[in-house]
């Protein structure tokens, strides 16, 4: 396995990629999941690799919906388990009664079992969806296969790294759908009732922290959320960074880049 230096400026990203690569080799992550991760990384780069003020507002609103839900469920696929199994466990501890259900686009019984084992070893209790026993109507993919005690009867579904078809199908069943997706242009973000445009682990940590704060619960009350406004704000942040000269992170400490005495000064136009 490639040795990674912690001094590499993109060490965290390289480590995450290596981790996902390793879990792809064990079958937890689908090969397509690696492509999905690359797409997410690109959007996170545009976002500035931080939770924006608008995403923070979405996380706060989502915490209220989850707290007030009668039966909240978080849907977990291979990428989510690989990147965030401990964060899913923390979320479940912060919101007792939250069901955790394995739901896969590229489903095999072996993958579902491996993902459930990973979740349990991180501390998740009562993992649903390993042997699905019901279907979401009108959805042709394996993502339609759900658990009767979980997604089928949920009133609030948290769907990280989801696809647009299922988001639409869940909404058609009358569920309140909260998405986590770094792409504000994806059909999932466009379709969800409450899109969180943020990186998965940051968003889950933020949700657990919000839910951990004491709040009054009013079961069944879901205050309205301006989904269009949240997506507009995310797109604006990305557009601003893409057009701003100062957005590029420095590649070396300033002192290392300053020409020393006697070194001819380079033209500012030199790339
Ligand atoms: O494990 P399976 O079989 O269920 O398959 C899972 C994948 C991810 C392969 C499947 O759901 C898929 O193909 O997803 P998509 O349609 O590529 O969508 C994934 C979305 O998640 C994209 O819009 C990415 O930008 C986004 N994304 C990727 N990584 C992250 C992310 N969003 C938040 N945090 C991330 N870490």
In brief:
The chain is of the alpha/beta class and 271 residues long.
Description:
Strands 3-2-1-6-7-8 form a 6-stranded parallel β-sheet, with helices on both faces. Strands 4-5 form a two-stranded antiparallel sheet. It has a domain at 53-235: Phosphopantoate/pantothenate synthetase (Rossmann fold). The two termini are 34 Å apart. By secondary structure, the protein is an alpha/beta fold. Helices cover 47% and strands 10% of the residues. The relative contact order is 0.15. Bound molecules: ligand PTJ. Ligand PTJ binds next to helix 2 and helix 4.
Helix-strand blueprint:
Blueprint: H1 11-26, H2 31-47, H3 53-68, E1 72-76, H4 78-94, E2 99-102, H5 109-121, E3 127-128, E4 134-135, E5 145-146, E6 156-160, H6 164-172, E7 176-180, H7 187-191, E8 194-196, H8 200-212, H9 227-243, H10 254-257
Parallel strand pairs: 1-2, 1-6, 2-3, 6-7, 7-8
Antiparallel strand pairs: 4-5
Helix pairs in contact: 1-2, 3-8, 4-5, 4-8
The chain binds ligand PTJ.
What is the CATH topology assignment of the domain at 53-235?
A: Rossmann fold
The percent range for strand residues is 5-15%
Reported CATH architecture of the domain at 53-235: 3-Layer(aba) Sandwich
Q: Please give the alpha-carbon distance between the first and last residues.
A: 34 Å
Mean pLDDT: 90
- For the record, what CATH class of the domain at 53-235 applies? Alpha Beta
Order of helices and strands: HHHEHEHEEEEHEHEHHH
Coarse structural class: alpha/beta
**What oligomeric state best describes the polypeptide chains here?**
single chain
**Main sheet characteristics:** 6 strands, parallel
Q: What gyration radius follows from the Cα positions, in whole Å?
A: 20 Å
Unreliable spans are 252-271
Shape: globular
Main β-sheet, spatial strand arrangement: 3-2-1-6-7-8
Under CATH, the homologous superfamily of the domain at 53-235 reads Phosphopantoate/pantothenate synthetase
> Into which percent range does the helicity of residues fall?
40-55%
* DSSP strand count: 8
């Amino acid at each position: 396995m490639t040795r990674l230096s912690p001094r590499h400026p993109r060490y965290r990203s390289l480590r995450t990629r290596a981790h996902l690569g390793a879990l792809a080799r064990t079958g937890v992550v689908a090969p397509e999941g690696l492509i999905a991760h690359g797409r997410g990384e690109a959007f996170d780069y545009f976002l500035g690799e931080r939770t924006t003020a608008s995403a923070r507002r979405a996380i706060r609103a989502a915490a209220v919906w989850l707290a007030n839900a009668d039966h909240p469920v978080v849907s977990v696929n291979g990428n989510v388990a690989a990147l965030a199994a401990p964060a899913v466990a923390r979320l479940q501890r912060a919101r007792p009664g939250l069901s955790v259900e394995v739901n896969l686009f590229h489903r095999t019984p072996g993958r579902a079992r491996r993902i459930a084992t990973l979740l349990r070893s991180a501390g998740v209790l009562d993992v649903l969806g390993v042997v699905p026993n019901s279907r979401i109507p009108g959805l042709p993919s394996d993502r339609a296969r759900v658990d009767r005690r979980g997604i089928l009867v949920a009133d609030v579904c948290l769907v990280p790294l989801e696809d647009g078809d299922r988001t639409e199908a869940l909404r058609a069943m009358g569920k309140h759908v909260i998405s986590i997706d770094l792409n504000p242009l994806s059909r999932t973000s466009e379709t969800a009732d409450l899109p969180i445009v943020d990186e998965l682990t940051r968003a889950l940590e933020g949700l657990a922290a919000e839910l951990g704060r004491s709040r009054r619960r009013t079961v069944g009350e879901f205050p309205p959320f301006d989904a269009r406004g949240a997506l507009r704000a995310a797109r604006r942040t990305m557009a601003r960074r893409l057009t701003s000269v100062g957005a590029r992170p420095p590649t070396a400490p300033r002192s290392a880049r300053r020409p020393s005495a006697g070194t001819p000064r380079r033209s500012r136009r030199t790339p």
